[in-house]
Amino acid sequence: MAAEEAADSGERSTLLPSELLAFQQRSDARGLLRLFGHLAAIAVSGTLYGVALTRSDSLLLHAALATLLGFTLVTMFAAMHESVHRTAFKTQWLNDGVGWFAGLLSFYNSTFYRPYHGWHHRYTQIPGQDPELEDRKPTNLLTYLIEISGVTWWLGKLRTHFRIALGKTDPYRFLTERTRPPVVRSVRLQLGVYALASVLSVLLGYPYFAVYWLIPMVLGQPMLRIILLAEHTGCSETDNALTNTRTTYTLPFVRFLMWEMPYHAEHHRYPALPFHSLAQVHQRIGPALEHVARAGYSGFHGELLKSLTKHPASERLA
């Protein structure tokens, strides 16, 4: 019986070639629909925030709406991520253009992220190889709170952006002689856009850049940290995508803004699949996945916090 169950699980973990071909079909229409929906969420939340700033003195309301706007901005990371895989759209220039724009909004750089993320997929959860493991996971309550706050992310992004803008690319072993020049140019252009937005804000006499981008980004970043921390924390440090990545059940609104990336184990198992196929693939291979957070992000983080306070690092979420 055990052998039959194992064989059945193994069969469910692999898509048939015909299934894979069908699921891999990319679509400009679906990508643009998701993009416009995401941009509409930014516009609506930004409008509500702007109206509240002019018609209400409630700091709590301001903070709540700024956080909502911030969440729609930081989740443009997911649009960039999907575009970097060139699976958001069928047309390559759409992937590249939208990816760069989405990175601009979320303070990532798609040109840098492509080789960085390529190594992450190639060496997922392999110590000394996966660049994501260089950002250490929380080991106690204090480091957890610091991580969730986004402080380490901001410091890391600022350090990386300015280091690359100065042409200092040696620390990034995943960059090659071919990729270094466009990465440096892209980061310099991105920082130039931020500088221009800041100057225009000064000339217009109102801190638009800070009020409508920087402050919401700061307030929204913790929610993205909560989402991303669930992807691999406590998973196996092996090259098995069925065990080294976690899928997390969540609200449709979150899945929409995250471009279905909560189906993360499915994405790692088949990284060439477009976002709109992941839910169907989960139905197909979900039973074979080792880590599925059915209680959502709150359930995952509740268990993580318990493990951080009760167990040594080697036993957490094992």
Number of domains: 1
What is the succession of H and E elements? HHHHHHHHHHHEHHHEH
Q: Compute the gyration radius: what is it?
A: 20 Å
Question: Between the first and last Cα atoms, what is the distance in angstroms?
Answer: 26 Å
What is the structure about, briefly put?
This protein has 318 residues and is mostly helical. It has 15 helices and 2 strands.
Could you characterize what this model shows?
The chain has 15 helices and two strands. The longest helix is centred in the N-terminal third of the chain and has 28 residues, at 28-55. By secondary structure, the chain is an all-alpha fold. Helix content is 64%, strand content 1%. The model is unreliable at 1-11 (pLDDT under 50). The protein is globular and about 60 Å long. It has a two-stranded parallel sheet with strand order 1-2. Helix 3 (28-55) runs antiparallel to helix 4, helix 5 runs antiparallel to helix 6 (92-106) and helix 9 (151-165) packs across helix 10 (180-204). The protein has helices at residues 2-12, 17-23, 28-55, 59-74, 76-84, 92-106, 110-122, 141-149, 151-165, 180-204, 208-229, 252-257, 264-269, 278-285, 296-310, and strands at residues 247-248, 292-293. The chain has one domain (28-309).
